[in-house]
Amino acid sequence: MSAAAAGTSKAAHGDVAPKKRRGPGALAYLVIYNVVMTAGWLVIAVGLVRAYLARGSYHGLYYSIEKPLKFFQTGAMLEILHCAVGIVPSSVVLTGFQVMSRVFLTWAVTHSVREVQSEDSVLLFVTAWTVTEIIRYSFYTFSLLNHLPFLIKWARYTFFFVLYPMGVTGELLTIYAALPYVQKTGLYSVTLPNKYNFSFDYHSFLILVMISYIPLFPQLYFHMIRQRKKVLGHIEDYSKVE
Amino acid sequence: MDVLALEAKNVTTAEAEKKSAPRPKPKPPKKAKRTVFFEVEIVDLKTKEKLLLLDKVIRSLSIPTDPKWYPARQSLRLDPKAKCLRDEDILQTLPVGTTASFYFSDLGPQVTWGTVFLTECAGPLIIYLMFYFRLPFIYSPKYDFTSSKQWVVHLACMCHSVHYVKRILETLFVHRISHGTMPLRNIFKNCGYYWCTAAWMAYYINHPLYTPPYYGQPQVNTGLYIFLVCQVGNFSIHVALRNLKSQCAKAKKIPFPTKNPFTWIFWLVSCPNYTYELGSWIGFTVMTQCVPVAFFTLVAFIQMTVWAKGKHRSYLKEFRDYPTLRSSILPFIL
């Protein structure tokens, strides 16, 4: 669900909010962070392409980029810290939610349920995430340096039309594929009786997660569309004048 | 002298029903040689559209409005970013010239605090009992309408029910609420939370496979005593606070310990009602040894600490001589 919308909260602030409370040290750190993340996701992209060319098929490409994917997606949790500390003007809750949902899919679904790793749906969301993140992190890098090429800004607010549904589809299909294995093995589940008088059914929890996409996905999607109008809208006005 | 001189002129009202009764009431001077007239202009906060212009206001009159815009729903401010004016504010004491501009915004449908409290508390009471009596469709059909063989389960039901009955009675007879209303959507939020957590707790405590506490009867008894002591304490504080309010309706006073030993905690804490409430739930957690109960206690602790800190801060702001020994909710700690 966070496929293309991971930066929605920042979309509202990215080009608009003045970067007041940030010192030069924080600025340097953020530039380095965003450059590293861009590079990381480029590595994943290159890894996917090379693996495809080497194997000649789409299947099982996950294994070739498993480690960098885990590393860089988990590293994105630093962004929650950035918001909490205040060097990035975004909501902690919103960023937290977006990052954690990605991390949940990476570790609690794809990593934990080995049988889904060879599914094509995994490739679907990994590709969506990769393209989105490369654009997003380069967007932030250039924004911080005040040299944002229009192409990047346009890409960020246009590609999501396809990437976001693509990512959501990949995520949902992956969770769906994981369900029978989770039920069979009772993964991450706790049953009664036990001395803490608590139970948790991971299978039902995953179904609830899937259902939660229904109200949340349209909200985030339309938010991005509104942001697009705001950010790119005036460009079209200029062209009309000419 | 007390003649009501009032003319209302409608200036560009897009919808006629957006008239509002200006709440700040100017007090007419008793023996003034000349009366001071105020001109009041009401502007919509969002659209900045002028809704109403009243000139020659000495004492306000309740203009018959559309019942939809009852006073509790109106918010009038002096400045778009300022806080709302209160009902008791007097026009003459406000920092305005002879022409006052108020910004009007609609607070949305309102519901009284009493209503919210009652629904919040009635829900868990009924829901817990539904699980206690093991109504159909909750547990496996073979357990329908059966009763637990464990004494602690019956005890927990009694404690939980007593707690909410006490709360309902306090809402009806003890509490004196200063703020009349809150937005309607709060009732859904609050009730949703209370009802869902009550169902979650009740499910496990009344489950056929419930495991009694690890240390057995001593643990249950300890939990029970803590719970009872804190319930009595909580009630004592509510009574003490109500007595404080009833003595002097408008002015605020610092609460102090009374002859009741349960109120002696006022020496150390500003909001002992929250302290006792926390204690009750800790007692209940110990008594039932149930993770959902522990979770509920933790969330309650966080929320009550936020409220206690706010109250403590407002006490410090209001009273110069506020006792320095007091903390907000936990003696010496928080």
Automatic annotation (TrEMBL), chain B:
Gene3D superfamilies, per database record: Phosphatidylinositol 3-kinase Catalytic Subunit, Chain A, domain 1 (3.10.20.90)
Segments of skewed composition (Basic residues): 21-30
Chain ranges passing through the membrane: 111-133, 192-210, 222-241, 282-307
Subcellular localization(s) per the UniProt record: Endoplasmic reticulum; Membrane
Domain 3-oxo-5-alpha-steroid 4-dehydrogenase C-terminal: from-to ranges: 181-334
InterPro entries to which the protein is assigned, alphabetical: 3-oxo-5_a-steroid_4-DH_C, SRD5A/TECR, TECR-like_N
Keyword Endoplasmic reticulum assigned: yes
GO MF, one example: oxidoreductase activity, acting on the CH-CH group of donors
Protein name per Swiss-Prot or TrEMBL: Trans-2,3-enoyl-CoA reductase
GO biological process: one example: very long-chain fatty acid biosynthetic process
Residue stretches making up the TECR-like N-terminal domain: 38-106
Mode of membrane association: Multi-pass membrane protein
The keyword Transmembrane helix is assigned to this record: yes
